[in-house]
Amino acid sequence: MVISTRLCLVRHGETAWNTERRLQGHLDVPLNPTGERQAEATARALAGLAPFDAIHSSDLARALRTAQAAGNALSLPVQIDADLRERHYGAFQGLTHEEAQARHPEDYRRWHGRDPQFDLLGGESLNTFATRIRHTLERIAAAHPGGRVLVFTHGGVLDVAHRLASGRPLHIPRDFSIPNAGLNWLERDAAGWRLLSWAEQDHLDDTLDESADGGRAPSAN
Fold this sequence. Notes:
By secondary structure, the protein is α/β, with parallel strands linked by helices. The chain is built from seven helices and eight strands.
């Protein structure tokens, strides 16, 4: 008998820095009013998809607040896990894309080009970050064999998770969306990871994609 664990990964709701295209990384930025509405809408949608066995969340406020709304709706405690944090963006943290490019043009080129070894001037390299996320998701799945688990986290984490399940290499450009508060489903068993569904947004009015151009992605409605 094959035992599989299903994870629903949720990116945090929108922040003011998302709208400014400002790199957050490990800096603790709260949800803006749109993000608060997204958190509540996501909680209502997840309540309709219950039951879930557990909720795990990044400790950063934007993810944790989104998770807590779901925890309240589902009457489940939120298990805080700092290993679900966004990638550490080093010297780029707090800068807009434009500011990072102007101040560090060569380093920005390497980052934007997805150089797996580049550590963003004191942050995490893509390889280091991806290893952290892979180990964390595997640990969470192993803790809930046969279960359904909610994971509240960040855009960079979701980028790694999608590639983990789809087999896309880290260094190639992203060709899938990562909207704020979207639902993304993965399954894990002894054979590895599978991608079940991605960027479900029917419960949302509109969202910002986690992308270099910062474009707002329309919902499916």
